[in-house]
Design brief:
- The complex is a heterodimer of chains A (81) and B (228).
- Chain A has 81 residues and is an alpha+beta fold.
- Chain A is 35% helix and 31% strand.
- Chain A is built from two helices and three strands.
- Chain A has a three-stranded antiparallel beta sheet with strand order 2-1-3, covered by helices on one side.
- Chain A starts with a strand and ends with a strand.
- Chain B is globular and about 45 Å long.
- Chain B is built from five helices and eleven strands, in the order βαββαβαββββαβββα.
- Chain B is α/β, with parallel strands linked by helices.
- Classes of the chains: A alpha+beta (81), B alpha/beta (228).
- At the A-B interface, helix 1 of A face loops of B.
Chain lengths: 81, 228
């Protein structure tokens, strides 16, 4: 079976996010007030061959630990479809 | 015998010739080592130069750490050999776990290319032995991701061990604790964002980089009996 995996990688809470801060400062200029907590992350999409959704998840989580995310500054969430 | 300095060239490195010329001018023998090699050929010092290794895709340094040569670099470091990562090389050493922390985008989101003043806060290392404690060095920076971060408890340990070797006099990028250059616990692996290899001739604006690169050459010369 092939599973579609989505990985969302975000900077951990408390790690400053210059991209999010810049966007947050730009929004009021366009007239959007009342916006806080802008954080920018990335989504990585993969098609993974595996025998089961659990196996696909475990493979992708292993990839996250070794390559897709940097555990010092980033957290990740995996979803399998 | 002349100290042999291995300069690892990744696809996307772009400061390897600056490093080669700086070490050659200091009397060392530079050896260029392609990243797909698996042997360091017995060099005394390993340099990971600046640039954009593997395009810096995903994260800076994230892919370079899987280059075939990196097993040999790790073994050299674990045997106590000198490894220096400059700019992108520093980012690679952090991703490889040979140095603590990670490099984030600069605070203010600007690519920074300018001269900065560094302060030598640890003169008791092979990288800074020619400096006086507190000595200031003028060395250029040229990076977008130089905003070093490490968890607070790890930072406390690094400070206690004197591993924050160089600090910015005026922090340009948001780096934690003003850190510009750090070392590992064994004091043989060094990483810094500024480019000492571009400050090795007063014709280029400063020769302060010689203090750092020359210290490394002194170290391996004293250890092996080779002369510079």
């Amino acid at each position: 079976m092939s599973y579609l995996a989505r990985v969302d990688v975000m900077l951990k809470p408390g790690i400053s996010d210059p991209q999010g801060q810049t966007i947050e400062k730009a929004l009021p200029v366009l007239g959007y007030g009342g916006v806080r907590g802008v954080r920018v992350g990335k989504r990585i999409q993969l098609e993974v061959d595996a025998a089961s959704p659990d196996e696909a998840r475990s493979k992708v989580e292993d990839m996250c630990e070794r390559l897709l995310a940097n555990p010092v500054i980033e957290s990740y969430e995996v979803s399998i479809a | 015998m002349t100290p042999r300095v291995g300069i690892v060239v990744f696809p996307g490195s772009n400061c390897e010739l600056d490093a080669r010329d700086a070490f050659a001018a200091l009397g060392a023998e530079p050896v260029m080592i392609w990243h797909a090699e698996t042997s360091l050929d017995g060099v005394d010092i390993v340099i990971l130069p600046g640039g954009f290794a593997h395009g810096d895709y995903l994260r800076t340094g994230a892919l370079a750490r899987f280059s075939p040569i990196m097993d040999a670099v790790r073994a050299h470091a674990e045997a106590g050999g000198i490894v220096l990562g400059i700019c992108n090389g520093f980012q690679i050493l952090c991703e490889a776990g040979l140095l603590p922390g990670a490099l984030r985008k600069n605070a203010g989101l600007k690519f920074l290319c300018k001269w900065v003043t560094l302060r030598v806060d640890e003169a008791d290392t092979p990288f800074t032995a020619r400096a006086r404690p507190g000595q200031e060095l003028r060395i250029p920076i040229n990076h977008f991701e130089g905003n070093w971060y490490v968890e607070p408890d790890v930072l406390a340990g690094l400070k206690a061990n004197g591993q924050i070797v160089l600090r910015y006099a005026d922090n340009p990028n948001g780096s934690l604790d003003d850190a510009a250059g750090i070392c590992n616990e064994g004091r043989n692996v060094f990483g810094l964002m500024p480019h000492p290899e571009r400050a090795c001739d007063s014709l280029l604006g400063s020769a302060d980089g010689v203090v750092l690169l020359g210290s490394l050459l002194d170290h391996v010369s004293n250890r092996t009996g080779v002369s510079v």
